[in-house]
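Hi F.,

I've been meaning to write this up properly since the lab meeting, where we talked about keeping a consistent format for the predictions we share between groups. The idea is simple: the sequence comes first, exactly as it goes in, then the structure tokens exactly as they come out, then a line or two of notes. No screenshots and no reformatting. I'm using this chain as the first example so we have something concrete to point to.
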Amino acid sequence: MTKHGASFVLLTLVLGACSAGKQTLGYELGDAGTAPGDFSGDTFLPWYGGPAYHARWPNGLSASASFIPIGVWMQQPANAERYREVGVNLFLGLWEGPTDEQLDFLDAAPELTAFCDQAGVWQSRLDDRAMSGWLIDWSPDNAQELPEGGYGPCIEPDVVQDKYDEMAAADDSRPVMLLLGQGVADPEWPGRGECDGRDDMYLEYVQAADVLGFYIYPVSRQRPLELVADGVERLLEWSRHQKPVFALIEAASTVEGVPRATPEQMRAEAWLGLVRGAAGIAYYCHRFEPELNETDCLDDADTHDALARINAEITSLAPALNSPTVSNGVTVASDAPIATRLTRISDVSYLFAAALSNEPTRATFTLRAIADAAAEVLDEDRELAIESSRFSDDFDGYAVHLYRIER
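Output, unedited:
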């Protein structure tokens, strides 16, 4: 049983939840800067810094613009090659590790590294490239399982801060990641127990890490998919956009009778996070009934193939995703909400758009600094004309369209 075992399933699937909301913070987000050249009028959203941020840790994640973290939660590295084949490059958590055997498996798959606890053989393998970060996996914002049964209160932020300080002092060549729970995305999630409604705690939690992550599994809980986008947005705001955020999403049928996310829903969840500014994604792949299977996402053929397609698509767009978001480059008009993210690489603009509801809609995009051009719809074998800075496209519920525009 993994750390997200029976108690995790109880918190995730048995407890009910109400509708999601958003929090407005008491400070304003300004522009991050301007761009040179033909797009000199561009201004940018605040940003943690992309590859330059990761370069601060010599033994951390890759600082290449072509790298974007695509992780999987708490898997045995013996399955590293299977995950590498579907585009996963990061293991989040090593159960009861790191052990020599686990690190040896990861060393044999050089595209893969792990964020893990400072336990096991970590000190004797401190120079091992397989360890690219440290992980605080407590989900401290949740009610905590008690040894005698039941749940106690969440963990106070100062306890998490002490753990972060301890890890950073023991090895400052790798970043420390903090994993938070579903309350990040869903403020009415009941799994926080006595800490329910204490969103002020997140302003302190985010200080106890270099990388932030949260999990939300809306399909299994029959909740709106846009909670993924809400969670990224809230965590970025709480951290003042100074730290990268990873969104951990569902890729398994966890227990009997609980629906599995379809390939379309998985893609929507991934891109809802990325469009909102996530620096990476990760998948939860465990099934618990009728028997434990930690590789359920690989063993189900449709999910396996969807992982390969989604991850290849994301990886191919890593340079664009590793660029700052233009804040004044596009506006969108539609009857149902559409989230957008516009980035540029030289004279090429990338517009990523995701529907924030299950309602079909037609969206009209107005682009600044692009008058007449063509929008290539990536992976859809079609092209849309941009005339007088505008083009329109149809969106099914939770649809994602990715546009490449060259001028």
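Notes:
The chain has twelve helices and 18 strands.
Residues 1-34 have pLDDT under 50 and may be disordered.

If this format works for you, I'll send the rest the same way.

G.
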